[in-house]
Specification:
Shape: globular
Structural class: alpha/beta
Order of helices and strands: HEEEHEHEHEEHEEEHEHEHEEH
Distance between the termini: 14 Å
Largest sheet: 6 strands, parallel
Strand content: 15-25%
Number of strands: 14
Strand order of the largest sheet: 5-4-1-12-13-14
Number of helices: 9
Radius of gyration: 18 Å
Length: about 270
């Protein structure tokens, strides 16, 4: 217990990953992970600040929140930091007109973005949209640009649905990087700017915050590089080998969100 008290002391804000921590998504709407609905409710009642930090790029933020609310979670759209709105802000600030290789479910986030005569490519988890034809079109757009810009909503390798592990955007992002000789700009975890925007929204400093996620690299490693602490849950995409990762070691490993919250309520902000 003393070890946990030391690791969690002074925590005032909690960043929660969504997929693999709160629920496993799926064609049927998904399934809450055991105890996660109650854990979120307890966390919100505790006085600790809570922010949901996701790389979800198959659903708009509004649709994602609607799904989670139907599953029983106490969550609002304003509590979610997601890559699509952040990407739109970047596009507007830099005068970029994207060719969009994205899932139809998130396309509404880009309704007010000029996509004529593209001068960049935005790639997200397009699911079935990752056909050869669509990948090749994105490749062609990038190759025609004097200064190619590739923006990726996250760089995950895979994630978990109720039907099993699913290939994520990172593999397709790497294919375009290799083919075009460019380096993608990642909006989403593990980008420091993305984590920092979530911290700013919560109003806490990095050393006062902890990230709870299922991705050892994107969630845990990304948060730690920003000066946060991070716990990995053994749900979602977690693999036993994560606990022996060559480069990233979590500040703690827990069976699920419910166990993480129990430990936080015992030791945080003391």
């Amino acid at each position: 217990m003393a070890a946990w008290a030391e690791r969690l002391a002074g925590v005032r804000g909690v960043l929660l990953d969504i997929s693999g921590v709160l629920y496993d998504s799926g064609a049927d709407g998904g399934t809450p992970i055991a105890g996660s609905v109650e854990a979120v409710a307890r966390l919100k009642q505790s006085g600790l600040k809570v922010r949901f930090c996701t790389n979800e790029s198959q659903k708009s933020r509004a649709e994602l929140v609607a799904v989670l609310r139907r599953l029983g979670f106490d969550i609002s759209e304003g509590e979610v930091t997601a890559p699509a709105p952040a990407t739109c802000q970047i596009l507007k600030e830099r005068g970029l007109r994207p060719h969009l290789l994205i899932h139809d479910g998130v396309r509404s986030e880009f309704d007010h973005i000029d996509t004529s005569n593209p001068n960049c490519v935005v790639i997200a988890d397009a699911g079935e949209g990752f056909s050869y034809q669509n990948m090749n079109k994105a490749f062609q757009v990038l190759m025609e640009l004097e200064t190619p810009v590739l923006i990726s909503l996250g760089k995950g390798r895979y994630y978990k649905e109720t039907s099993g592990l699913m290939l994520d955007v990172g593999a397709y992002m790497k294919a375009l990087e290799y083919a075009c000789g460019v380096e993608a700009e990642v909006v989403g975890k593990p980008s420091p700017e993305f984590f920092n925007s979530a911290l700013q929204a919560m109003g806490v400093e990095a050393h006062q915050a902890i990230m709870i996620g299922d991705d050892i690299v994107g969630d845990v490693g990304g948060a730690q590089r920003c000066g946060m602490r991070a716990l990995q849950v053994r749900t979602g995409k977690f693999r036993p080998s994560d606990e022996h990762h060559a480069e990233v070691k979590a500040d703690g490993y827990v069976d699920n969100l419910a166990q993480a919250v129990e430990l936080l309520l015992q030791h945080a902000d003391k």
